Automatic annotation (TrEMBL):
It comes from the Bacteria. The chain crosses the membrane at residues 21-47, 67-88. This is Membrane protein. Keywords: Membrane, Transmembrane, Transmembrane helix. InterPro entries: COV1-like.
């Protein structure tokens, strides 16, 4: 027979416990939405603060309506970027770019900074077919320790020629947690690379969340796409 003082008896949660559970549930719902809105609002304000001082005052709507409209700088930035891109695709634009780059290449310090920034911008923003092919598992940093990586391409040139492997050598990017934009470029024999069924986005979420968010929360052993099909 159980008594009220029996530690094994089932006790109903009190009012404070219910309020605490409701608060945590609400926090889980509000936090992602609030942080997303705050981040977008902050980025828009940062772009406005950078762009609007460069815009002539006669083009600023605040001069006519008397209200500081957030996001006007973003609109000016988008219009200006599209116009520059449209001009750069033409013959005159390409000629001006080549002339400007020839001048930059004559400046020792500026040349190094410009070439590095240009290479990063082309890698991140240029619309090409170059991207990670698959998510994979590799044993890194030692045997028996597994890490998520992204298959880049097959190794070429001197790397492929000088590496002593029996088969194909693969270029694998192993990201760090929780920032997947930094990591290590490693080269593995193709037989040591295990390709995964999960998408690149799902693998990135797994890395960013430090293993807390799997592609399929109900059954992490199966990718989400496999359940839908």
């Amino acid at each position: 027979m159980k008594t009220p003082f029996d530690p094994t008896s089932n006790r109903r949660p009190g009012l404070l416990a219910k309020l605490r559970a409701s608060f945590l549930t609400g926090l889980v719902v509000i936090a992602p939405v609030g942080l997303t809105i705050w981040l977008i609002w902050t980025v828009i304000g940062w772009i406005d603060g950078f762009v609007l001082p460069l815009v002539p005052s006669r083009f600023n709507p605040e001069l006519y309506i008397g209200i500081n409209l957030r996001g006007i700088g973003v609109i000016f930035f988008l219009v200006f970027t599209v116009a520059v891109g449209w001009i750069a695709k033409g013959l005159i634009g390409r000629s001006l770019i080549r002339f400007a780059e020839s001048l930059v290449n004559r400046m020792p310090v500026v040349r190094s900074i410009y070439s590095g920034v240009k290479q990063i911008a082309e890698t991140v923003f240029q619309q090409t077919e170059s991207s990670f092919e698959k998510a994979c598992l590799v044993q890194y940093p030692s045997k028996g320790i597994w890490a998520i990586g992204f298959v880049s391409t097959q190794a070429r040139g001197e790397i492929a020629q000088r590496a002593v492997v029996g088969g194909t050598l693969m270029s694998i990017f192993v990201p760090t947690t929780p920032n997947p934009t930094s990591g290590f470029l490693l080269f593995f024999p193709s037989e040591d690379v295990i390709e995964l069924d999960m998408t690149i986005e799902d693998a990135a979420k797994l890395v960013i969340s430090a293993g807390l968010v799997y592609p399929n929360a109900k059954d992490p052993s199966k990718p989400l796409a496999r359940l839908v099909s």
